[in-house]
């Protein structure tokens, strides 16, 4: 028998019937479960990052740069890997540079491009946060056995691949779509 958690009440008038607490026998729907897990992970992640003085967006960008540190990354390539707009990447990269976690240098092969390299301080903070993140992830997903863990990862990966635009990261995708428009566009 599969255990289904009771989710906290979180309905709105705009979405009647989406509150699994309104009917004691109702099972939460898949989108509700995914939202609940995602929201919980995000809140935990933000609290865990606070002592490091780095935001989730900054860490993701720094992590991407460190992962390719043997070969400096172009700013536009980092934006592409993060699935964010170039202007959003420029803002986050500027923050990383002002913290002393990366350096920006002109690309000798293309004067219009900028190369990003992690500093020692950037590699150190990225390593500490990555270690903490791995530990927290292990703790959070410890209730899953190895087979369930692998299956969940496989299924979520399928959804990300099938819906790359919806899976895009960044604050712009957190906004609902305006009437007649696309989510995250301004």
Question: How would you sum up this structure, described in words?
Answer:
- It is a single chain.
- With 186 residues, the chain is mostly helical.
- Helix content is 49%, strand content 9%.
- The protein is built from 6 helices and 3 strands, in the order H-H-E-H-H-E-E-H-H.
- It has a 3-stranded antiparallel beta sheet with strand order 1-3-2.
- Mean pLDDT is 80; it is low at 1-17 and 169-186.
- Keywords: DNA-binding, Transcription, Transcription regulation.
- This is MarR family transcriptional regulator.
What characterizes the major β-sheet? 3 strands, antiparallel
Strand coverage percent: 5-15%
* SS-based class: mainly alpha
* Helix count, DSSP H or I runs of 4 or more residues: 6
The N- to C-terminal Cα distance equals 46 Å
The count of strands amounts to: 3
Mean pLDDT, all residues: 80
In oligomeric terms, what are we looking at? single chain
Low-confidence stretches: 1-17, 169-186
What order do the strands of the largest sheet run in, or round the barrel if closed?
A: 1-3-2
Q: What is Rg?
A: 20 Å
């Amino acid at each position: 028998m599969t255990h289904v958690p009771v989710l906290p009440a979180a309905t709105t008038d705009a979405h009647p019937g989406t509150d699994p607490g309104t009917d004691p026998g109702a099972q939460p729907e898949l989108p509700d479960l995914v939202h609940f897990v995602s929201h919980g992970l995000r809140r935990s992640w933000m609290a865990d990052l606070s002592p490091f003085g780095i935001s989730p967006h900054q860490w993701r960008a720094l992590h991407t740069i460190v992962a390719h540190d043997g070969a400096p990354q172009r700013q536009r390539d980092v934006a592409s890997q993060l699935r964010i707009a170039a202007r959003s990447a420029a803002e986050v990269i500027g923050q990383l540079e002002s913290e002393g976690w990366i350096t920006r240098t002109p690309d000798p092969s293309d004067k219009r491009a900028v190369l990003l390299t992690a500093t020692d301080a950037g590699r150190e903070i990225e390593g500490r946060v990555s270690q903490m993140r791995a530990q927290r992830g292990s703790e959070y997903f410890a209730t899953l056995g190895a087979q369930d863990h692998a299956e969940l990862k496989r299924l979520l990966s399928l959804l990300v691949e099938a819906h790359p635009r919806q899976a895009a990261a960044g604050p712009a995708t957190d906004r609902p779509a305006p009437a007649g428009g696309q989510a995250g566009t301004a």
